[in-house]
Amino acid sequence: MKALVFHSPGNVSVDNVPDPRLEKEDDILLKVTSTAICGSDLHIYNGFLPQKEPMTLGHEFMGIVDEVGRGVTKLKVGDRVVVPFPIACGGCFFCQHDLPGHCENSNPEKYGPEGGMKDQKGGALFGYTDLYGGYDGGQAQYVRVPYANNGPRKVESDLSDEQLLFLTDILPTGYAGIDWAQPKGGETVAVFGCGPVGLMAQKVAWLKGASRVIGIDIQPYRLAAARRTARSEVLNANEVDVVQAIRAMTEGRGADICVDAVGMEADRTAGDKLSGLAHGEAGTIKVLQTCISAVRRGGVVTVVGVYGSPYSNFPLGQIFDKGITMRFGQSTPQKDIDLLLDWVQQGKVQLDDIISHNIPLEQAPHGYEIFCNKQDDCVKVVLKP
Fold it and tell me: What is the pLDDT of residues 307-330, one digit of tens each?
């Protein structure tokens, strides 16, 4: 079969690779009908997350069940399913506590309580390096899906793939960025990053009762996408002092909720890069620092952008003085996907309006290039195997 294979940072290609096969009784094989390139894939593509061996990437995918293991009870051949990005057994302590990204069984070689940089990681993720299980991902014609009684969700709707695909990751992740803050209604929500996850967070903020939603970015075309798809007010961080602007919009207090949907790959100066190299830091925490300044006292900062290392100059004293509540981490799509699927089917939230490029799998390397380099007004790439 054909699959998008990572070889080394900046080097991906569509290769002929062996077809996947059933390995355990509760596996399914999925014929992929649509898959997407995620901002998290760029962390591997750009070398922020190490991967020595070739690997098929991709954790946003859906398709048709092609084969089922003997232990699969909830799906049959021919079912159309969307697949959440964490690989989770459904039965361990963390799965039972609705934390699929911390599954104790899916990443046996690298799992542990410490959460270190190169070992003792969380549960497995599709197509997301050997640190997270070494499972091949779904930017391919076929993919093996473990724990099929727990992860995949059958969809019987006549909605298109494009209307459903982002239930796999970016909608649950954007949802988490808002839901973790436990909004009561009437909040001002500032979302840092108007990429796919940030746009979903902005959409969800309205559905959770926000009175004002502000999208922040440095790319005019992504700010335009926020205005168009999420009806957000926008701030260009290259043109205004974002913290002062948000305070001016909120009677000097700051936003009730700030969402970091950027993570470690924020835009950096040459000086930032040298400092990071000297301190052994992957990327930068500049967006997180800005969130901490922009949020009001007693407010909430949620972090759904990925960070991959310890960082110096973490503003702990400021966080303490302002009494900020913070939450970080992977979203919980296995817990949230049924609610979110219902939202999509009822038309409460639209997902396909953020797609800027819909291209064949064979053109995936081009998709990575334009998405990574922010070319051709690329917001979101969908691949068709």
Answer: 988 898 899 999 999 999 999 999
- State the sign of the Cα–Cα–Cα–Cα dihedral 127, 33, 174, 179: negative
- For position 278, what pLDDT does the model report? 47
Strand pairing partners for 31? 64, 142
Helix (H, G, I), strand (E, B) or coil at 385: coil
Tell me if 62 sits within 8 A of 140, measured CB to CB. no
* DSSP-assigned beta bridge partners for residue 327: 302
H/E stretch holding 291:
helix 286-294
SS3 4: strand
Q: Are 382 and 355 in contact (CB under 8 A)?
A: yes
Mean pLDDT over the full length of the chain? 95
**CA 79 – CA 81 distance, rounded (Å):** 6
Question: Distance (Å, rounded) from C-alpha 192 to C-alpha 263?
Answer: 9
CB 135 within 8 A of CB 71: no
How far, in whole angstroms, is CA 100 from its chain's centroid? 14
Mean pLDDT score, 71-85: 98
> What is the number of alpha carbons within 13 Å of residue 190 lying toward its C-beta?
31
What tokens were used for 230?
Answer: 């999420």
Sheet holding 55-56, edge to edge: 11-16, 2-8, 55-56
Alpha carbon separation from 26 to 29, 152, 304 (Å, rounded): 10, 12, 30
Question: For residues 101 and 95, what is the distance between their CA atoms, to the nearest angstrom?
Answer: 8
Q: Report the DSSP beta bridge partners of residue 80.
A: 64
Cβ distance 215 to 230 under 8 Å? yes
Q: Label residues 96-134 b or e (16+ Cβ within 10 Å = b).
A: eeebbbbbbbbbeebbeeeeeeeeebbbbbbbbbbbbbb
pTM: 0.95
